[in-house]
Design a protein that fits this description.
With 295 residues, this protein is α/β, with parallel strands linked by helices. It is built from 12 helices and 8 strands. Strands 3-4-5-6-7-8 form a 6-stranded parallel sheet. It has a two-stranded parallel ribbon with strand order 1-2. Residues 23-294 form the Amidohydrolase-related domain.
C-alpha cells in the first residue's frame, strides 16, 4: 500500500484500500476553556508530559471538524477527562450536546471515583453514550476504587467500551501499568475496553491482557510515529499485533488535535509496518466499525 506522506494524501490512502473512509477512536474535543488549558499544559511541558510537545492543530472547533471531515474521518470520539472530583458530570453534559450537533461523533463520557459516580454514569448510558474515556495517568486515581466497582459492572453489562489510558507513558504514576487495570478486568472479565497507546510502554503486559480477555482492544495512538514521547514498540510483539489487528482488536487512534506532526503521519507509520492491506483495513475501519455498530 502507498504510505500517505501528507494530510492531502489521506483520502487517496483509504480509497486505495477500498474503504469508505476511516474511523478514529482517539480524538479530543472539549469545552474551549478546558482545551485551552490542556494546550497550555502541553506548551509548558508539564510534569505529566515529560517532554516538549508542540500542538500542531491549534485551530477553532469548527476548523478542526472541517479538517477531519476533509480527511474522510467518518466517525470519531470527543475524549474528555477530569483531573479532580466534580468535573466529570458537567463534561458529560457538554459531550452529549457536542455529539447531538456533530453527527460523526461517537457520544463520549467520562467518570471519576467520587460520590454519585454510578448515578451520573447511568444517566450517561441512558442518554446514549457509546464510549467512556478513563485517564488513569492524568486523573491519578486507582481504577480499583470501591466507588468504581459498580460503574465497571454497568459498562460490562451494557457492552459500552471504556477507552482507558492505563499505560505509564509518557510519565508513570502509582495506578498506571497493567496491574491495576488488570485487576479490574479480573473482576469484570466481560468489560469491553480499549487500551490507549497500545499500553505504552508496558506493551507486553497489556498484550497479555488482550490474550486473556477477548473484549480487550488496543488503539494505535502515537505508537510507531517519529515522536519519542512513548517507548519503542518491541519487534517481538509484531506478530501478535498483526493477529489482534486481523481479529478487529487493534483500532486506529491519533490523539488529534494534540499531536506534534501531521495527522497523516500516524497512518504513514502504520503502513510502514507492512502488515498487509487486510490488517490496515481492519485497523482503520472494520475493527472500530464492528465495535461501535457502524458496519
Amino acid at each position: 500500500m502507498a504510505e500517505p506522506h501528507s494530510d492531502s494524501a489521506v483520502a487517496s490512502f483509504w480509497r486505495a484500500l477500498g474503504l469508505p473512509g476511516i474511523i478514529d477512536v482517539h480524538v479530543h474535543f472539549m469545552p474551549q476553556r478546558l482545551m485551552s488549558a490542556v494546550w497550555g499544559y502541553f506548551d509548558e511541558a508539564g510534569p505529566l508530559i515529560g517532554t516538549e510537545w508542540p500542538i500542531r492543530y491549534r485551530d477553532s472547533e469548527e476548523e478542526r471538524l472541517a479538517f477531519l471531515r476533509g480527511l474522510g474521518v467518518r466517525a470519531f470520539t470527543s475524549l474528555t477527562y477530569p483531573h479532580r472530583p466534580g468535573m466529570a458530570e458537567s463534561l458529560n453534559d457538554w459531550t452529549a450536546q457536542f455529539a447531538a450537533r456533530v453527527p460523526e461523533c461517537l457520544q463520549t463520557a467520562t467518570f471519576f471515583p467520587e460520590p454519585g459516580v454510578a448515578d451520573y454514569v447511568r444517566r450517561a448510558l441512558d442518554g446514549g453514550t457509546r464510549v467512556f474515556k478513563v485517564h488513569l495517568q492524568v486523573g491519578g486515581f486507582d481504577p480499583r476504587a470501591k466507588e468504581l466497582d459498580e460503574v465497571w459492572g454497568m459498562l460490562a453489562d451494557a457492552g459500552v467500551p471504556a477507552l482507558v489510558h492505563a499505560g505509564s507513558g509518557p510519565v508513570a504514576n502509582g495506578y498506571t501499568g497493567p496491574g491495576p487495570f488488570g485487576d479490574v478486568l479480573a473482576r469484570h472479565p466481560g468489560l469491553t475496553a480499549i487500551v490507549a497507546h497500545l499500553g505504552a510502554p508496558e506493551f507486553d503486559g497489556f498484550f497479555a491482557l488482550a490474550d486473556r480477555y477477548e473484549r480487550v482492544h488496543l488503539d494505535t495512538t502515537m505508537v510507531f510515529t517519529r515522536f519519542a514521547a512513548l517507548a519503542a514498540f518491541p519487534d517481538a510483539l509484531l506478530p501478535r499485533l498483526r493477529d489482534l489487528g486481523l481479529d478487529g482488536r487493534i483500532l486506529l487512534g491519533t490523539d488529534f488535535p494534540n499531536i506534534p506532526y501531521e495527522y497523516a503521519h500516524q497512518l504513514e507509520s502504520l503502513a510502514a509496518l507492512d502488515l498487509g492491506d487486510d490488517w490496515m483495513r481492519s485497523v482503520c475501519w472494520h475493527g472500530p466499525a464492528k465495535l461501535f455498530g457502524l458496519a
